[in-house]
Amino acid sequence: MRKITFTSAFLLLAGTMTALAGGKVVTETIDSRILGTSVTYNVYLPDGFDNSGKTYPAIYLLHGLSGDYSDWDKRAGMHRICDELMHSGEADEAVVIMPNAGGSDINAVHNGYFNVEGWNYEDFFFKEFIPAVEKKYRCTGDKGHRAIMGLSMGGGGSTVYAQRHPDMFSSCYAMSAWLDTNFNEDMPHDCFYLTVKSVRSTCALDFVDNADEDTVAALKTVKWFFDCGDDDDLVYLSVDIHRKYNERGIFNELRVHNGAHTWEYWHNCLRDALPFATRSFDR
């Protein structure tokens, strides 16, 4: 039997580590004229990004209510999952962009992806954020190489963004999506009031009901996937939008797995969401 020396074992380990070298997550800020402040975001850059000179598809990954830009990496293991899927070939290499759209104090901090009084986040996202970040990180910058996904509030945000801008996204993967809500004017008029009001006024279910034939045709150019746990209080919303899409002839996928409104569930979702997004890119 051939002896394995310390040196040869070290070289073997080093070679394995090099082969499995992964991407990196960087934290950046962008100054927004629309919002009148700076917005922090995380970006996952695939292995070899710095020296490749290539352009990459862009995947926007949106967090939920009371969360922030760091949640996907800290709480769902996004970095490791991206490394594994892209290294194995299950997902294509892509830049994954995680913007901030909230904070833990939902009554005092604006949470959400839509325009509300004094906080025009949707305008910022499309007019400032997307152009700046895609230029900075060499993204291809077209519908065929751009996807959007998110959880809960971010699942609703990604759905509405893709509904309103179907010319900009090849796919949408909505996890445990907050697509509608009860709202009344008796709520305290704070930041959470504005968040709830915006979810009701941009209701993704109403959008389907009110869509004309041209809008339906545009929605059919996006690949849709709704994913929710069977013990999640929001599961009926994913079932409802799936049914409404089917009634209008808009192909979409619905998956209801065992689980609740938890990070364990969303961690597992990523393993389906990232390959779905990259399969939906133009080839």
Describe this structure in words.
This protein is α/β, with parallel strands linked by helices and about 280 residues long. About 40% of the residues lie in helices and about 20% in strands. The strands form two sheets. It has an eight-stranded mixed sheet, sandwiched between helices. A two-stranded antiparallel ribbon has the order 5-6. Helix 4 packs parallel to helix 11 and helix 8 packs parallel to helix 10 (about 235-245).
Number of helices in the DSSP assignment: 11
Q: Roughly how many Å is the radius of gyration?
A: 20 Å
Strand order of the largest sheet: 1-2-4-3-7-8-9-10
Instruction: Write the element-wise H/E pattern from the N-terminal end onward.
Output: HEEHEHHEEEHEHEHHHEHEH
Portion of residues in beta strands equals 15-25%
State mean pLDDT (0 to 100 scale): 94
**Overall shape:** globular
Strand-pairing-aware structural class: alpha/beta
Largest sheet: 8 strands, mixed
Q: Could you estimate the helical fraction of the residues in percent? A: 40-55%
Instruction: Please mark out the parts with pLDDT under 50 across 5 or more consecutive residues, or reply none.
Output: 1-19
Q: Would you count the extended β strands for me?
A: 10
N-C termini distance = 48 Å
